[in-house]
Amino acid sequence: MPDGIMKAMSKDGTIRAVIATTTELVECARQRHKLSFTATAALGRALTGGALLAPISVREGQVALTFKGNGPVGKVVVDASPNGTVRGYVENPQVELPLNSLGNFDVGGAVGSTGYLHVLIDQGFGRTHMSAVELASGEIGEDINRYLVNSDQAGSLVVVGTHLSRRGVEAAGGLIVQLLPDHTEETICQIENNITTFGTFTFLMRRGMGLEEILNRILSGFEITPLTEVRPLKFFCKCSPERFVEALKVLPKKDLIEMAEEEGQAEGRCHFCNEFYYVNKERLLDLARNVR
Questions:
Q1: Which residues pair with 63 in a beta bridge?
Q2: pLDDT tens digits, the chain, 292 residues: what are they?
Q3: pTM for this structure?
Q4: DSSP labels, the chain
Q5: How many Å is the maximal CA-CA distance in the chain?
């Protein structure tokens, strides 16, 4: 199933939802960053969470999530835009932990339950808003849910998952369900009961279900109306050789010359996509000549 995202609402006006499949982009991140199983599960959930938050938070611009817990994986950082591009990284990509008591990847232990989730909402044109909430568990989905409850002052449910095998990422995706003012107390109980009954999000994906089918299964009992078509998602980074050169231009002339003469080149690596960039000696000296 190609990666995609769509928004929907119940006809009775009690809930709205955004749902996504992210298998290909999470696998792309796993390969680029050479992630361990545990780190893949952590970053995969965060990438999915960012993809889900972007279209409900901004029309332009982007959403940036930074999970800073006390676990060994270190920071987990994600950028996502409403046009379907997502990128991210973990500070320590090789961290591996034993499975937790439920037999799942121990994302909570890797991220840590003490710390903060920082969320930057960039509406574009220099309009930004930063907020932070204490981590609920380090399990990513619960932490994003805590952020939504604090920011929107309304009930929500966040489900994100990544299924892995030795071959790589076999299924990844999730959804956010937000309660609207007309909901009843039974609404969230119905949704939670559906999830308990029908299994995990990635389990439904591995059964070959599409987005609308999964959404209708999880939101069984509600009449759901799609608000958008399924739109594509992809792992995409804004870095480029040109941006690396522009970054070098801010260095003092002396530093550029020293780099050219002593190292013979300049080397840079993008944290978000692990891409390496190189500028040779001749180009460095040319940049130095143009420094005022």
A1: 80, 121
A2: 799 999 999 998 889 999 999 999 999 999 999 999 999 999 999 999 999 999 999 988 899 999 999 999 999 999 999 999 999 999 999 999 999 998 899 999 999 999 999 999 998 777 889 999 999 999 999 999 999 999 877 788 899 999 999 999 999 999 999 988 877 778 878 888 887 887 789 999 999 999 999 999 989 989 999 999 999 999 999 999 999 999 999 999 999 999 999 899 999 999 999 999 999 999 999 999 987 6
A3: 0.94
A4: ---EEEEEEETTSSEEEEEEE-HHHHHHHHHHHT--HHHHHHHHHHHHHHHHHHHHH-SSSEEEEEEEESSTT--EEEEE-TTSEEEEEESSTT------TTSS--HHHHH-SSEEEEEEEEEETTEEEEEEEE-SSSSSHHHHHHHHHHHHSS-EEEEEEEEEETTEEEEEEEEEEEE-TT--HHHHHHHHHHHHHH--HHHHHHTT--HHHHHHHHTTTS-EEESS--EE-EE-----HHHHHHHHTTS-HHHHHHIIIIISEEEEE-TTT--EEEEEHHHHHHHHHT--
A5: 70
